[in-house]
Every structure is written in C-alpha cells, then in structure tokens.
Design goal:
mainly alpha
Amino acid sequence: MPVSKDLEDDPRARSGAPARFVSRADWALLEAVRHGDGSAAQALYERLYPVVDHTLHRVLRIREPDFDDLVQITFERIVRAIAQERFLGRSALTTWAAAIAGHVAIDHLRRNVREQSALGDLPPAPVTAPEPRMEAREEIRRLQGVLARMPARLVEPVLLFDVLGHTLEDVAETLGISKSAAQSRLHRGRKELVRRAGTPTGK
C-alpha cells in the first residue's frame, strides 16, 4: 500500500482537510483505495468493520436475516464516497463511517415502514419472551418507526449524539456545520421525536 513519503505528499495538504481528525495512515489508506488498490480495500474493511457492525446493531437492535447485506451496502457507500472524494476529514474516519452506517440502518427502517403500510396491520407476533421484555422491544420498534419517518436532517444529529454516543463536536464536524448549529438541530430533532412519539402513527 503506497504511503506518503513526506508532508508535501500528504493528501491532507492537497485537500485542505484538518489534520487533527485523521491520521496519516488513514489518509494513505484512503488514497490507496481511491486508486483501486485491492489490498487497501480489504484493509479498509478490516479497519471499519467493527464500527459499522456496532452502528447497525445499535440502531436496529437485532441482527436481522439481511444484516450482512446491510454491512455490504454500507461499505459500498463508503467506497463510493471515497472514490468521489467526499470524505473531507472533517471528522474521524470511524465517526464518518458510523454516520454512513446509521443512514443505511435508517433507510432499512424506512423500507420496513413502507412495506408494513402497504400490507396494512400485521397480526401480532407470538409471545416468546417475558412480558416486560416484549414491551421494551415493542417500544424500541415504535421509536425506530418514528425515526424512520422523520426528515433526515433532524434524524442525523439525534442518531449520532443520542444513539451512537458521539460528542457534539463530532456531530458538527461530521455534518459540516458549526457546533451551535449542530446543537440547534439536535434540539429540533429531539423535539420532533418527542412530538411524533406522542401520536399513534408517529407522523
């Protein structure tokens, strides 16, 4: 995998990306992937798989039958974004990858909501767990449905900050906005989540 020999060759210098968020090793890895290096693509997969897996599981809560497909979709989006030079180093590589995985998970939830709406009310699932646990799972599913119906710009800060546990600074850098704007958007997202959660349909 090619590695920059000096600071002048550092991709951060060419892109103007802030060096404090991304290591030279990660920039070298991204450059190699951008140039079609197969071994670099595998190294990127190994580098980001833990955060992608964790994020998908954190949002979806269960490993659905098509979980591996969602992992694959996430990496396809990551590689496409790298090829199009859309990673600008505004946040750590892992934070950026987590945001993409979060979008994939929300897209998946949106598809499920649309399919359930098209099919109408489905019969309740058989009880296979103690009542409190079933109630908790139903509440999680309901909140997932609410998030899936919310505008993306309001979901993003709630997902990154409240669900995935990133700092407000991380949220701002990942979204490319100021910290105050991130805080404002997070506040609006939370209000919208509470409002929709208080209605039977989540709309």
